[in-house]
Amino acid sequence: MLQENDYFRHAKKANKLMEKNDLESAIFEYELAFRIGRHIKEGLDERHKFWFVLKNLWNASVLFEERAVELRSRPYHKAMKFLRNFEFLGIKDKGIDNHFIRLIANSYLLFDYDAAFEYAKKYMEESSERKMEQRVLGALLFDALAKEDLADKLFLSIYNELRQDPASKYETMPTIKGNVYSMGPSEILRSIFLFKESSSYESLAFEPFCSNKLREALAVHGQVFSVSEIRHPMYDGKSTYVSVIKRERCKTLMEGTGSLEMNIRNAAKCLAAIHANVELPGMEYIGIDERISRLNYDDDVKNMLMENMFPLKDSFLTVPHAFHKDAHPKNFGVRDDGCIVVFDCENKGLRPVTEDLTKLLVLSGIDESSIASCIKAYEERYNISAPLRYREVHGLDFPFLNSVLWLAFSYPSSLPDSFGRKKDISRELALNGVGAIRSMKLRYNDYYMKHKKHYDALGSLISSLF
Questions:
Q1: Do 164 and 131 reside in the same domain of the chain?
Q2: Which of 179, 282, 289, 420 is the most exposed place for a label (fewest CB within 10 A)?
């Protein structure tokens, strides 16, 4: 009974979204209903299955809501025939997109998958000369109908058009691993779609794998946290693999509903849930010396860092190691309902949890008191979420300061020289690094004095670099 209530709740929410012409969100809600409905149907015998479908016909139908009384007066098989003959009645003022998506959704809700697929194909035939965003909707429909080959074909055609059209209004962003082509929100398409390309299948395949693992781990938290959907890599037939990343409709943590501190604190809680619950097979701890060797500095600078890293390494010994996610504030969003949305799930390797937490809090620009509040919120969520075999975390303020110092060196090294704000960001992080050393001296003087030589050397290196 509880599953049925969830089923109808999602279906009715989709109905309302359809009335508002929010087609993409409606597809998302219908897909949730589809999954629940499939599970319910598998556990029913034929008699109960018939009554469940009929109940859905009466209660969850959108297109035929105004004919509910007429439908209820008909035998089931005649009601289904009535739906087939109802295809083009009363839809002139509702628009072709709504019409087809309603037909597809209602067929699917009634477990008539073949009819839903036929409607989806007809929708694409009708929209062959239409806007790109509508073609994306068609690809989403095929994806929801588990017709991945057709969805892949559509997504690849859209990607090729974006890549080849020099007058395209969509954004192209070069990254270390390949170009990212962005389709921004529009009247029909509310989310942002990124087409990410690479010459390597493996480099793209890891991200949807991680995305699914994060989604599984965060599912127990209900509607508080969400993870952007990433499809499997597709081959363009030449030399490139492409994945589709769907970023949910949301705002940045800086622009979202509520204060910046509240949004960052909720993102810190989300990060804690990820660190406490996500386990990936074969992942190994990446030591700080290895990470120094990868930094974009001269050998002399790298050698000086390695010679003076002992106090930082020592402070991280009490910190759990966890799945490392690039926790830049821009890799989180917040929906209107307050749900935190997670982007970018591809980083490999285990690292101290304070590294992610430091990047999130420091790069967000919140003040010291807000940072202290967010660290406490992180600790509380981690200790609630972590399995019993994990140790609890307390006193992260101390290793956090050392992570701030490490961030002053590691993050500027990762920025390409072409990045416009590289110098400004490097200077800001240098000031934070020097401030962290000062805070170590004031708050943890015994530890600072014990390692004063190393801290002074790191402080001098910061000043010389930035």
A1: no
A2: 282
